[in-house]
Amino acid sequence: MAKPVTQFVCSECGAVHKKWTGRCESCGAWNTIQEEVPLASGPSKRALGGAKGRRMALTDLASEEAPPPRTLSGMAELDRVLGGGLVPASATLVGGDPGIGKSTLLLQAAAAFAGAGHKVVYVSGEEATAQVRMRAQRLGLGGATVRLAAETNLRDVITTLEAEAPDLVIIDSIQTMWVDTVESAPGSVAQVRASAHELTTFAKRRGTSVILVGHVTKEGQIAGPRVVEHMVDTVLYFEGERGHQFRILRAVKNRFGPADEIGVFEMTGGGLAEVANPSAMFLGDRERPAPGSVVFAGIEGTRPLLVEIQALVAPSGLAQPRRAVVGWDGGRLSMILAVLEARTGIGFAGLDVYLNVAGGIRISEPAADLAVACALLSAREEAGVPPDTVIFGELSLSGALRPVAQAENRLKEAAKLGFTAAMAPKGCKTGDAGGMKLRLLPDLQALVGEVFGAG
Ligand code: TYD
Ligand code: MG
Prior knowledge:
The chain has three domains: 1-39; 76-276, P-loop containing nucleotide triphosphate hydrolases (Rossmann fold), CATH 3.40.50.300; 280-452, Ribosomal Protein S5, domain 2.
């Protein structure tokens, strides 16, 4: 029988290599390749077929299961992102850039849960208790019944938690924790993984909800192995542009609720304030609509959201004209420029193109294609789009417009905010359209004709 071939697996991305290397060719991580001996194929002593294991009890998929109980913080935006409150015995990871406001958010959340009658422990590995206390006072939370500790040794943390048995533990941050059985520095992949494992198993064992704070690397990933994201039930990202007051809490994974749900906050002198009506907020300081500015009727999670998309097109002095994007995907912009050129003959060669989603929010919906195309056309032709009009729809490479989901909700939100007309792809299920004047377009040519009277 052939000897099983040893393989080398990256602990970061799971890529399989034939030989050991210092750096994973697949994800670029250093020192993550580990040797693994695969099980032999076919019958052998190593395979499990021979020896008897314990027989599992199989159950029916159709059996009745009650939804998990939920703990509400009373911070509506946070509860919404969690899928309707925090689930007991769950582990949640909150990632974000340094300084974005994670500690502020979680201190406010800790106080809110404590205020709702839950036993909350906040463990800070980054700040002394005096610092956390001062922050709490600045936030007006000085009187909250949150139990506090500054500690990085996870053995001590777990021992304390076993004795205290709180309902909720917040660990700020997972990168500062270290396990004394693992011989590497705090913040290393091995330590972060071991710490996260200890804390998630503690959560399951004792029925405590655990929230871990994680820093994000320059590449936008939570530092440490991806494995942490797999270990926890819920992964939330706290994002926002520096210099903007808006902060978005986004669920990227949620075992107990919808992913892609967002909560909107505003960073103020007194901490994070919830924004209950984000559309009004994002359009609030909208100036007189200029060429290149259009309003996109989007959906974030389960909630409609109107945002302004701005484009600027200017003659370029560069051999390779500039393509700059804030709040949207750069590759998708290139695609839309190419489709515009190929299907309508309106080209952008020799022109710098800037695209900006106002307010510092990031949009990933393909439904924004049509709004982006319209902003680009409007900027290129210096023709304004009527200010009472919202736009949404997906663009295919052929130049045809594809219907998108939840058209009726998008239109209702727009009507609520005083818009009276909409441009959308033909075939959208628009219902009564909230009383809006609808232009349902089959393709890009129709859009050009509609907006600029050309054809
Ligand atoms: P912080 O919560 O410490 O960020 P993180 O834990 O993600 O690193 O937030 C730090 C920033 O928030 C800091 O630059 C100051 C700002 N901030 C306010 O604007 N208002 C406030 O009330 C607080 C507490 C912080
Ligand atoms: Mg912090």
